[in-house]
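seq as requested:
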Amino acid sequence: MTVSGSAAATGTKCFDNVSVVRVMLGQVASNGRQGDSGQAVYIELSDGMIIPFDRAYNLDSDKGRMMASAVLMALTTGARVRGYDHYGTRCDDVQEIQVYYGG
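struct tokens:
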């Protein structure tokens, strides 16, 4: 399952073959960033990385709610995830999440 605002993974791959160990929703303040008026989504991965969704992909948008649903499914099923930063490509946030089983 790929959830993205982009048609293909052409950005920078920020993580791959990891699981979601925690999902933080709402007024989350982490890594010097604010909680986007209570709409923020941050995920913590099995390798220790904590990364937010891009502000345009938060809970106040359909695409953000869809991505949040995908990572919650990955959290509950143990599926692996990979994520991409399509804007700026610094991996300071993600705009695409892929959920899959296996390596």
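The beta strands are 2-4, 12-26, 40-45, 50-52, 80-85, 96-100.
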